[in-house]
Design a protein that fits this description.
The chain is of the alpha/beta class. The protein contains 16 helices and 13 strands. It starts with a helix and ends in a 5-residue tail after the last strand. The structure holds adenosine-5'-diphosphate and the ligand N[C@@H](CCC(=O)OP(=O)(O)O)C(=O)O. Belongs to the glutamate 5-kinase family.
């Protein structure tokens, strides 16, 4: 059972926290560059040590613990004594590769003092796009846990060219995707503030929000980021990652990474950071992958009748309701479904490739065989392979 199935959000805050911790079997902790860097720009080995001790205590309870750690670029800049982060992608990639060695060594040294090995896992989003890659990453992370080690994940910066065009990728989001590989997971995003504030964190009147039940536009608008050279995602990125994790059924906590006992306190169910509670209805397994991890290969523009059929009546998608097909895709690829107004309402696995779909769009099932010479499927997307609305990028 996913944690969210049993969380009654009418309970008091303390009871909800307790219930979430009791139900958590897998913990994904993400720590940002700001938390891991000392004032003089070096990798903060003391902070790694403090976090490692707490990760080990959580792992001692039998839970599957995964650390997603930024800081490779920062560590590389410090090691090479560069005056600032380089600008060009190739140089950034090289600096990340050089700094990653220090980062993983710091985790290995610290975790080993508490009886755990660190396992370096470098991922790009494309590793999760194919269903087979998604399952392999999950199996590898399970294997690391079964060997009694703790995975330390970072984006594979030196090869993640697509994500790197303008900036480094976003580890908050990567962490939400990693949590999405498992059931009963809790995502913890550690940063340099105490959680989400209801105004700018530097304003005296701003208050920490303890719990968010519905991560809607009003909550999103609380992010007041002025992005720095050090971190790229900002609070908005953390909120998007929280919403993604929530859509998988995973509670998320944005908490203070520089508080020495932050993880111990979270696992003692204390009111630390901001807790985001998932909705009761969430996605599982393959449908979760379709909605958020898979690469979208094409777009189907639907007419109003098709929108009504799939959204309101729970039907499969038929060719007759497709007005236009964009993109080049194969049978089994994930496509995005748009309303006549251009709004994305669903994603699904197409039974037909794009060249076939362009020919049979707007046509009834009776005509398909005459056009294609065969009709392998009754529908273009079966309702079991269709995810309506609960889409997070
Ligand atoms: N409403 C808000 N509440 C708290 N922090 C906010 C808010 N809006 C923007 N921020 C900023 O978000 C920053 C944390 O995000 P980020 O810079 O990405 O950190 P990290 O390196 O830890 O990933 C904080 O330092 C803070 O200045
Ligand atoms: N992968 C990069 C960090 C990317 C990232 O998301 O950074 P941050 O916003 O500090 O969590 C690195 O290790 O430097």
């Amino acid at each position: 059972m996913a944690a969210s199935d049993a969380i009654d959000s009418s309970d008091g805050l303390a009871a909800i926290r307790k219930q979430i911790i009791e139900q958590t079997r897998c913990v994904v902790v993400k720590v940002g560059t700001r938390v891991l860097t000392t004032d003089d720009g070096k990798l903060d080995l003391n902070r790694v040590d403090i976090l490692a001790a707490q990760l080990a205590r959580i792992a001692d309870t039998g839970r599957h613990v995964i650390m997603v750690s930024s800081g490779a670029v920062g560590a590389g800049v410090a090691k090479l004594k560069l005056p600032a982060r380089p600008i060009g992608i190739a140089k950034l990639q090289a600096v990340a590769a050089i700094g990653q060695a220090d980062l993983i060594r710091a985790y290995e040294d610290s975790l080993l003092r508490h009886g755990y090995h660190a396992a370096q896992v470098l991922l790009t989003k494309s590793d999760l796009r194919r269903r087979s890659g998604y399952l392999h990453v999950r199996n590898a992370l399970m294997g690391v846990h079964e060997y009694g080690a703790i995975a330390v994940v970072n984006e594979n910066d030196s090869v993640a060219v697509a994500e790197l065009k303008t900036t480094f990728g976003d580890n908050d989001r990567l962490a939400a995707h990693v949590a999405g590989l498992f059931n009963d997971a809790l995502l913890i995003l550690l940063t340099d503030v105490h959680g989400l504030y209801d105004g700018h964190p530097d304003d005296d009147g701003s208050q920490r929000i303890e719990m968010v039940r519905d991560l809607d536009g009003t909550v999103m608008s609380m992010a007041k980021d002025t992005l720095s050279a050090v971190s790229k995602g900002g609070m908005e990125g953390k909120l998007r990652a929280s919403r993604l994790a929530n859509s998988h059924g995973h509670p998320t906590i944005i908490g203070p990474g520089r508080q020495d006992d932050v993880l111990d306190r979270i696992f003692a169910s204390e009111s630390v950071g901001t807790l985001f509670i998932p909705p009761k209805r969430t996605l599982k397994g393959r449908r979760r992958w379709i909605a958020s991890a898979a690469n979208v290969q094409g777009v189907l523009h639907l007419d109003a009748g098709a929108v009504e059929a799939i959204r309101d009546k729970g039907r499969s998608l038929l060719a007759v309701g497709i007005v236009r097909v964009d993109g080049t895709f194969s049978h089994g690829d994930v496509v995005s479904l748009l309303t006549p107004e251009g709004e994305e309402i669903a994603r699904g696995l197409s039974n037909y490739r794009s060249s076939e779909l362009s020919l049979i769009a707007r046509r009834s099932n009776l005509e398909i065989e005459a056009i294609l010479g065969h009709r392998p499927y009754e529908n273009v997307i079966h309702r079991n392979n269709l995810v309506i609305r609960m889409i997070e990028n």
